[in-house]
Sequence to fold (91 residues):
Amino acid sequence: MQITDVRIRRIEKPGSMKAVASITLDNEFVIHDLKVIQGERGLFIAMPSRQAGDGGYRDIAHPINSAVREMMQRAILKEYEALLQAEDKKI
Fold:
């Protein structure tokens, strides 16, 4: 499986969520609404989720193992950093 496209939309509102991402896998499958979050230890991604009946949130799509999660996180954060650098150059 290869990540063949990453799209990032920055979030301008103050808060810990910095962007929303979409990734395409093998030019055939898209996952929308991955979130780029600023945590205490740095940036990380959160999988798309939906509120459950008990008030908690459940991921609606997620990788089965940590290696795939890390691959997704690296690709998304790389694209997010590139977007920030491009915006800095415009200023």
Observations:
- Strands lie at 3-10, 17-25, 29-39, 42-46, 49-51, 57-59.
- The chain has a mean pLDDT of 94.
- The two ends are 37 Å apart (CA to CA).
